[in-house]
Design brief:
Shape: globular
Radius of gyration: 21 Å
Helix content: 25-40%
Order of helices and strands: EHEHEHEHEHEEHEHEEHEEHEHEEEHH
Strand content: 15-25%
Number of strands: 16
Number of helices: 12
Bound molecules: nicotinamide-adenine-dinucleotide
Largest sheet: 8 strands, parallel
Structural class: alpha/beta
Amino acid sequence: MQVATVANHMLRVAVNGYGTIGKRVADAVCVQPDMELIGVAKVRPDYVATGAAHAGYPLYTVDPAHTDSFRQNGIEVAGPLEELVETSDIVVDTTPGGIGIQNRPLYEQCETPALFQGGEAPDVADVSFNSRVNFEDAIGVDYVRVVSCNTTGLSRLLGPLAEFVGIEKARVTLIRRGGDPNQTDRGPINDVVPDPVTVPSHHGPDVQTVFPGLSIDTIGLKVPTTQMHVHVVNVTLNAPAAEADVRERLEREPRLVLVPGSAEIDGTGTLKEFARDSGRPRGDIWENCIWEESITVDGREFYCVQAIHQEADVVPENIDALRAVAGTHSGPESRTLTNRTLGIGFERFQQPPTTVADRPTAD
Ligand code: NAD
């Protein structure tokens, strides 16, 4: 493993699989003071490859047979994937689910540690990772799997609740977006589909990969939207708690944003519009968005409804996982740095958007 030496220099990061998650991770790496993006690997010279070229990211080819087609499309090729893996300290593998496991032998051969994503089976890596719950388990570990968007969203919420009063059992209904905005082949188009129809869905067992022993049941449905997932959460706590205390505890978590009723954000569409209006890159929402008015505590029963931006919430987790593997920061140090550099937290819920009347005049 090469990464033990990185404490002395910028962490050289490669992204293999420059798609929905990969391009966001690449951008996030570029704003970290302790990381350097060495390059990204791409299969085909499509519009996403053009985007990487416009961003100035050195672009490596997964299949050298396609090198000419990149050049024919005016995209410069820095070299083959193997060269990228060899020259980096860590690879973030953001290839489609099931491809990461096929790439692992290459990373092992080059002695380059790697992060995998939630589309891979847990045994692709030595540790399944959520920064808030088990950062320490990944310190110095060569192969780490950053869990999926839904598992990340649930772990961030359940972690603080477990620390606060303890969890007897969590029950979650996941209303899942049918596909990402660029997935024109996904559905349903005009339907609501239990997916999977069996209980529990795979999400509960996946949460248990970062939260061993947690009692959790999940049910999944797919709906015709590309915006965000929505989780309907009920947790039986170990002891009765005051609603105000639970709300205050959740408010302290930078990656949990409580959406006040006064914001008049009535769904995932308005949430995404708010993110775009706030100047978020690609309209990304890295935080769990919990409708504040949905937070209800009745004795030991906790309820809330939260929205998860599937394209974005795993991005800060990948950045923290890089530092865990490198062993350069503690969990709190890394999260603080990542939150600051990405701009996590919607200040404008407290500070209303500037109106035309508020803007300074030209003279
Ligand atoms: P994507 O299809 O948007 O991007 C994957 C990229 O990898 C594409 O550019 C594709 O061309 C490229 N690719 C395909 N085969 C490759 C290969 N052999 N080598 C290198 N690159 C290859 O996928 P995504 O949505 O970014 O998902 C990536 C991973 O992240 C998956 O494990 C997925 O489950 C996980 N994930 C996705 C989401 C989401 O909502 N999109 C959320 C969280 C986690």
